Amino acid sequence: MIPLRKLNYNGQNHLNLFNNRQQPKKKRKSRTAFTNHQIFELEKRFLYQKYLSPADRDEIASSLGLTNAQVITWFQNRRAKLKRDMEELKKDVESAKILSAHKSFLENVTDLGILKKKAIINEDDCPKNLVVSEK
Fold it and tell me: Which residues bind DNA (predicted)?
């Protein structure tokens, strides 16, 4: 038995609907390769100003030979990177706190074990009602 194909309202196979469309030929702009000088100046500005006014943006763009869109995109990406870095730093601090607590606990347990060994040297030092088992 041959399966029936689903037809659209024009009587065409529904799978061909997408194949017949003209794909838009919109070219994506290639990635901007910033110079070291441009990055240095953008980073320097970012240190004290995370958001730019339109006037500041125009001034930076013209002084560095970039478009407004490039400056906008660079600052957006840099703020996103800062946020990621801060979240990673928070996780590292939490991990360090946990490790420090574990280390402190282990040191205390070790110290306690040494104290027990020093306190009980032989059976004569033990109270008479304490049972010392040998392992």
Answer: 27-86
pTM, to two decimals: 0.55
- In the DSSP assignment, the letter for residue 14 is T
d(CA 42, CA 60): 8
Rg (CA), the chain: 35
Euclidean distance between CA atoms 40 and 76, whole angstroms: 16
